[in-house]
């Protein structure tokens, strides 16, 4: 009788262990599915960068972790003449341009808090409060504009692509105004240039960027004056 009890106990333990293992497998599978769904919800399917939802999540994280006195920077990039490119070569070719540009942004952004595509031909690089300065944001914007315009980016493509950039550097408590400020700076930069989708050399692009510095950057000093006004 005791032997039967022992066998039953062992069988019950085996069933329980199998049930626990099955439960763990199902839970792990569910977690993986949720992770995939979350990644898809926050990622631009064409470029692999974050999408607007991903950017919003990064902004929320920066807002939650910011300390008093912290500043956050944002670079907003708008490709010049993508509509004309789509009209001339088709949307599939235009998508390949977006992918090529996104790759350069991803490589250049480095330790940025978030690199995202907002849709269409607009890209954003969010620089968190961890060790970035206004000069860092300006320098990265300059590098991105020059790099996008370089021949290497559009290798084997019959065009040269350029981008206009706006930079906003604001106190962390005004983070909700970052996109608007960067967008205004970007449109000032775009309106200061004559023509779009022009064939430019690296030297031409590099020469133009410093002269447009005032139009490209919405600095903290300007934000402070706005707050006082």
Automatic annotation (TrEMBL):
- Signal peptide annotation: none
Name the domain of life this protein comes from.
Bacteria
A molecular-function term among this protein's GO annotations: diguanylate cyclase activity
Record-level GO BP terms: cell adhesion involved in single-species biofilm formation; negative regulation of bacterial-type flagellum-dependent cell motility
* Gene Ontology CC: plasma membrane
Xref: CDD domains: GGDEF
Q: Which InterPro entries match?
A: Diguanylate_Cyclase, GGDEF_dom, Nucleotide_cyclase, Rev_trsase/Diguanyl_cyclase
**Protein name listed in UniProt:** Diguanylate cyclase (GGDEF)-like protein
Q: Where is the GGDEF domain?
A: 70-204
